[in-house]
TrEMBL record:
Taxonomic lineage from the root: Eukaryota, Fungi, Fungi incertae sedis, Zoopagomycota, Entomophthoromycotina
Pfam families: DUF2205 (PF10224)
Family indicated by similarity: Belongs to the SCOC family.
Keyword presence, S-adenosyl-L-methionine: no
Protein name from the UniProt record: Uncharacterized protein
Role, per record: Positive regulator of amino acid starvation-induced autophagy.
């Protein structure tokens, strides 16, 4: 094998490793997006709950 073949093989190996790393990063991004959406929705529910508590408290005050 000559040095050109080794260089090409190394380059292909690096490309494949980079593609695999990219796949992992994309999967992690999808997971984080999903978690963010879930937490955002929970926060909206909590905000409505707190608003309802505050308005109930205001109605009960003399």
């Amino acid at each position: 094998m000559d040095s050109t073949t080794n260089t090409r093989e190394d380059l292909v190996r690096k490309i494949l490793q980079t593609q695999e790393q990219l796949r992992h990063l994309l999967a992690k991004i999808d997971t984080v997006k999903s978690e963010h959406h879930k937490i955002h929705t929970e926060n909206q529910v909590l905000e409505k709950y707190m608003d309802n508590l505050m308005s109930t408290k205001e109605m009960m005050e003399p």
